[in-house]
Amino acid sequence: MKRLLLIMLAAPCLAATPLDAVNRALLGGDAAAAWQALAASWPQLASQAQRDSWQAALAALAAEHCGKDAPVQLPPWQPALTLELAQRDMPLARSYRVTVSGEGDARSAQLLDDSGSNLLAGARYEAEGGRRFRLTGPDLAAPLAGGRYRLLLQAGQRQWQAQLLLPPAANLGWLARQPLGVARVPPPRAACPAPWLEQSLLRRSDFALQWWQRREPGQALRWPAANGEQWQSLALVQAEARGALVLRVVQRQVGPR
């Protein structure tokens, strides 16, 4: 928390701004009030400098306990939930995608920004065995902006929603295509898991998963022998939490093998 206070107080643009309430909560050592004040301040930000300061405050606040102290609780019918914000790089193309997955009964979801735009519009539902599921949103051309969002889940007649303060997923440069590998590892955060790699091979005709492997960034990338026409995917994953929800920010490099 001391590091967070230094970051917040060192920013001159925070004087007499909507973020003053965040400063007061942090100076009082009240993380719960800081999360609340950060959420309340979002619609009042009037400049890019203020939005940048808001993002810096969010990153520092989340780093203290990896976001586990954020006020987000899951309903009994949804015991585990992951929200993924992904950048997907292919030869000559880049897109962004939001995915919700977990264990529970949810069949539909929305992720709404303050203007009401739904980043999960038309999300595709997939059952993954047992009670596990995945809801995959559409490919989006625009980067995923950080800010205040509302996540809504529905399972039959049951509904749940939560306010989420999210980092951006935009123009990530963690992975290189030629040669395929790690270009830059995000800086470590003491309270969070270290970033890791996920390798996968997909059948080119229907994108069915054929092989998957988790590795550490320093490990050699070994791939199995080719088996027909395949897509090759390498992802670097940075994980944190928003209360009981797992949050993943991911860059993927995908292309034909």
How would you portray this structure in words?
With about 260 residues, this protein is α+β, with helices and mostly antiparallel strands. It has two domains: about 1-65, no CATH class; about 80-255. About 20% of the residues lie in helices and about 40% in strands. The protein is built from four helices and 13 strands. The chain has helices at about 1-10, 20-25, 30-40, 50-65, and strands at about 80-90, 95-105, 110, 125, 130-135, 145-155, 160-165, 175, 180, 195-205, 210-215, 230-240, 245-255. The strands form three sheets. The chain has an eight-stranded mixed sheet with strand order 4-5-2-1-13-12-10-11, with no helix packed on it. The protein has a three-stranded antiparallel sheet with strand order 3-6-7. A two-stranded antiparallel sheet has the order 8-9. α1 runs antiparallel to α4 (about 50-65), α2 packs antiparallel against α3 and α3 packs antiparallel against α4 (about 50-65). The N and C termini lie far apart (about 45 Å). The model is unreliable at about 10-15 (pLDDT under 50).
Briefly summarize what is shown:
It contains 4 helices and 13 strands. With 257 residues, it is of the alpha+beta class. The protein folds into 2 domains: 2-65, no CATH class; 80-256.
